[in-house]
Amino acid sequence: MPPPAAECTDGACARKSEMFTAMRDALHAVDGARAASSPPCPLDIDSLGTSSWGLFHTLAAYYPDAPSATHKIQARRFFDALGDLYPCSTCRADLRADIDRNPPRVESREALSRWVCERHNEVNAKLGKPRVSCAIDALDKRWRKGPGYCDGDGMPQRDDGGA
């Protein structure tokens, strides 16, 4: 994977410390040996959901505080397209109905972050999972800034976002 662009200073462009890179490389070596004997499996519903929520929350966390008209249109189109294209048909139908009832709030980073969180909490409730705080400080800590150990000073953070 190429290094992040030098001009990118967002947390999403950063890398973990060398320790985590070394651990990842070691795991990939094991996975590489495993992959030689069997092809990787497609994402199942749980992996797809976890990955999707990570993308949605991170997209919202880095959405502009004062988005342009173009950003607003693009964000709306992104979520509208998911309501038509999401690979899980049950999830897609739920998302489409939810978007129709509660259109994406694209007027600001905070509004979109809360909107994504509220949708995530609705899904968590359906799955019997706990709800998470939609306070912007909590969302920023999880999806934009991260706790202190995310900069390589301690244990790696969970990557499932409570999904």
Automatic annotation (TrEMBL):
Its cofactor is FAD. Keywords: Disulfide bond, FAD, Flavoprotein, Oxidoreductase. It catalyses: 2 R'C(R)SH + O2 = R'C(R)S-S(R)CR' + H2O2. One of its GO terms (cellular component) is mitochondrion. Residues 41-143 form the ERV/ALR sulfhydryl oxidase domain. PROSITE patterns: ERV_ALR. InterPro entries: ALR/ERV, ERV/ALR_sulphydryl_oxid_sf, ERV/ALR_sulphydryl_oxidase. Its EC number is 1.8.3.2. GO terms for molecular function: flavin adenine dinucleotide binding; flavin-dependent sulfhydryl oxidase activity. It comes from the Eukaryota. Gene3D superfamilies: ERV/ALR sulfhydryl oxidase domain (1.20.120.310). This is Sulfhydryl oxidase. It comes from Ostreococcus mediterraneus.
